[in-house]
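Model it.
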Amino acid sequence: MGIKPLFDRIVVERTEGEAVSAGGILLPDAAQEKRQEGTVIAVGGGRALEEGGLAPLELKGGERVLFSKYAGSEVKLDGKTYLVMREDEVLAVLD
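Modeled.
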């Protein structure tokens, strides 16, 4: 099953957190901090303009991005967790 966001929304797959601490201790899932980094999976058609039409989005699928801690809404699909957020919630694109 695929997912296609609408308008200026994007779908991001969050990068997994570290399973081992700096001291070598294995961390359970509940103790791992959620990372604020992920990969864009899908992008919407564009931002709706007041005079009609759509402005294309700058982000593209496959780009690595940074986003704020509380950005987007978590969605579970086919056993994976994704974030659906607006393009303006992305803070930076990583090279």
